[in-house]
């Protein structure tokens, strides 16, 4: 795949990049080089390689998913300046 100068200008416009007109040819050759490199990578045989989730073999530390007792509403309501039916009461902010 090859990019022409107009395509480079269109990409620059979409990315909101500004550069001198003389640099468009340099960017075109740079992008063509990158695309050629990607094409070389696609030629590598990876049929026997498993996909990686992480490059590190370490596992994340996991904790048991245990339900705690919760039910602390009465204790939490002791800190409330005002409460109504078991909920904090706050001043109205939107009129």
Write out key terms for the chains shown:
mainly alpha; 2 strands
Name the helix and strand elements from N-terminus to C-terminus, one letter apiece. HHHEE
**Helix count?**
3
- Strand order, largest beta sheet: 1-2
Structural class: mainly alpha
Q: Whole-number radius of gyration? A: 30 Å
| Major sheet | 2 strands, antiparallel
Distance between the termini: 59 Å
Spans where pLDDT lies below 50 across 5 or more residues = none
Q: Quick one: overall form? A: elongated
Q: Give the overall pLDDT as a whole number.
A: 86
The percent range for helix content is 25-40%
* Strand content range: under 5%
**What is the tally of beta strands?**
2
What is this entry, summarized?
The protein is mostly helical and 95 residues long. It has helices at residues 5-14, 23-42, 73-77; strands at 83-84, 87-88.
Element layout with pairings:
Blueprint: H1 5-14, H2 23-42, H3 73-77, E1 83-84, E2 87-88
Antiparallel strand pairs: 1-2
Description of the molecule:
The protein has a domain of 38 residues. With 95 residues, the chain is mainly alpha-helical. A two-stranded antiparallel sheet has the order 1-2. A hairpin with a 2-residue loop joins strand 1 and strand 2.
């Amino acid at each position: 795949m090859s990019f022409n100068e107009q395509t480079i200008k269109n990409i620059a416009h979409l990315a909101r990049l500004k550069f001198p007109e003389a640099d468009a040819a340099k960017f075109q050759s740079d992008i063509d080089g990158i695309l050629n490199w990607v094409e070389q990578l696609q030629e590598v045989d990876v049929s026997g390689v498993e996909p990686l989730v992480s490059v590190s073999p370490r596992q994340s530390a996991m904790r048991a998913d245990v339900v705690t007792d919760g039910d602390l509403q009465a204790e939490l309501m002791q800190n409330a300046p005002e409460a109504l039916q078991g909920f904090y009461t706050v001043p109205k902010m939107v009129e």
